[in-house]
Amino acid sequence: MVHLIAYFGGSFDPVHQGHLATAKFLVDYFQLDKLVFLPAYLSPLKSQSLAAHHRVAMLKLAINGEHSFAIDEQEILQPSKSYTINTLKNLRQVYGSTQPLAFVMGMDSFLSLPKWHLWQELTHYSHIIVVNRPSYSPVFSSELQQWLNKHRCNQRQMLEYQAAGLVYFVDSPLYAISSTNIRKALQQGQAINQQLIPAVANYIFHHHLYGATATNES
Ligand code: ATP
What we know:
Elements: E1 5-10, H1 17-30, E2 34-39, H2 52-63, E3 69-71, H3 84-95, E4 101-106, H4 107-111, H5 122-125, E5 127-131, H6 142-151, H7 158-161, E6 167-170, H8 179-187, H9 198-206
Parallel strand pairs: 1-2, 1-4, 2-3, 4-5, 5-6
Helix pairs in contact: 2-9
């Protein structure tokens, strides 16, 4: 049996416990061979992100010692908007036609899918795994629902039996954490408590990122 390999795309600005806890849950739930964080240089739906080298450095600290985790820098090394469809095409070429691949996204991202470049073709190259995100319910636009009717799958084993083509909603734990809220809290001098792993929090304070000051550290 060939195990599934999952790619978790995002800005990771910064990577937080919501990303990491979700990634660990997915490794166990799907018995993943590997979960690969795929930081975008710039998400086409976002106006800007922190410098690429800082986001990669924080991701490296976050996955240190986690053997199932890896980072793919192909998007973040290309200083232009990162289109998932192009990345998935590249990955399919690298892995060949039979390796099961999945692209992971939160429900918030899934609801925005019709704004993504060539979104209906994403499943030509990989499966899509959708994880829960607090405050985002599975209420789909008619175009998303129509497309979903052709791709939705309720049996997780199917994601290993075929290489691509399916959308699977996983009932993952809810983590009320977002990079936007962390950036705001840092800017306002508020504590960020358990939302970041200590190594990432230390990196942010050391480099004074997001307007962080000593008052955030308490
Ligand atoms: P921002 O607040 O800047 O939009 P974010 O917290 O949503 O950032 P991203 O790096 O944009 O983080 O997210 C990457 C992927 O991780 C997206 O598919 C997003 O839905 C998912 N994700 C982010 N936070 C969580 C969370 N707390 N639980 C589950 N999925 C999450």
